[in-house]
Write a structure and sequence with these properties.
The protein has 9 helices and 2 strands; from the N terminus they run ββααααααααα. It has 268 residues and is mainly alpha-helical. A hairpin with a 2-residue loop joins strand 1 and strand 2. Helix 1 packs antiparallel against helix 4. The longest helix has 30 residues.
């Protein structure tokens, strides 16, 4: 994928920059995985994801600046991605610090192969999310049009949905420990935070779309990958199973499930 999308990209140290960024993303995962497995801790997993997002997008932007390839869309993507990554990774890091553990990792962190695979998937997640933005950062074009505006609106809406739903659930859990939330945005979707994340990455892809050329259109799989990862691999799938074990026989939870979509929110 790096090879077929490297056409017309900025060359850094003799290679298209996408190769260097791919290496950076996965080397960070391996560096953090080693002590995480030794000490059997998942506390730095989400923080590592955030650091990887921010370092990758900043480095790609600095290379572009160094080569005098500045454009406003690249700066916009830098700000959007950095703000999102800093907010989410710090939120998840402090949440797991407060709770002591992340229920998703109770069994996974005991297995070398499963824990390593989890970090590897995180690296793939970072790359696939950033794939469209990397194309923009690696281009010598300067484009600002209706795609930029529409994509920016989607990003803002998605970001707001994610932070509001996270805030609502955090406040709910403070006084309703052990129960499930069914109010606020959670009355519209059982996982509004993940829907918000999908929406903002869809926005990033739309912003980046005018920069695609030839095989770079493969970057359109980015939001589809995010959707499948959130729904079928981590996030929704795991949390739905946990919720079913906890409240599967709870009449109110059954009613909540019947009236509330899993992912895409109901409008009315």
């Amino acid at each position: 994928m790096c090879y077929i999308s490297s056409q017309n990209m900025i060359i850094f140290s003799g290679f298209p920059i996408i190769y260097s960024l791919w290496f950076l993303i996965f080397i960070i995962q391996i560096i953090v995985f080693i002590p995480s497995f030794i000490f059997k801790t998942e506390h730095y997993y989400d923080l590592t994801g955030g650091i990887t997002f921010i370092s990758t997008i900043i480095i790609s932007y600095l290379v572009k600046i160094q080569l005098d390839q500045y454009d406003i869309t690249s700066l916009l993507l830098l700000l959007f991605i950095s703000v999102w990554a800093l907010r989410l990774s710090s939120f998840l890091f402090f949440r797991v610090k407060r709770s002591g553990e992340d229920v998703r990792f109770i069994k996974i962190k005991q297995s070398f192969s499963q824990f390593l695979m989890t970090f590897t998937i995180q690296g793939l997640w970072v790359f696939m999310c950033l794939f469209p933005a990397i194309i923009v950062m690696s281009s010598n074009q300067n484009i600002f049009n209706s795609f930029t505006i529409v994509g920016s609106i989607l990003w803002v809406v998605g970001f707001l949905i994610e932070i509001i739903s996270d805030y609502q659930k955090t406040q709910f859990n403070k006084v309703n420990k052990g129960s499930f939330i069914s109010s606020g945005l959670w009355s519209r979707s059982r996982h509004p935070n993940y829907f918000g994340e999908f929406l903002l990455w869809l926005g990033i892809t739309i912003i980046s779309f005018p920069y695609f050329e030839g095989y770079q259109y493969t970057a359109l799989i980015s939001p589809l990958f995010v959707y499948l990862l959130l729904n079928k691999v981590s996030g929704v799938n795991l949390l739905e199973n946990i919720a079913e074990k906890r409240w599967g026989d709870n009449k109110k939870y059954i009613e909540y499930k019947n009236r509330t979509p899993v992912f895409f929110p109901k409008i009315f």
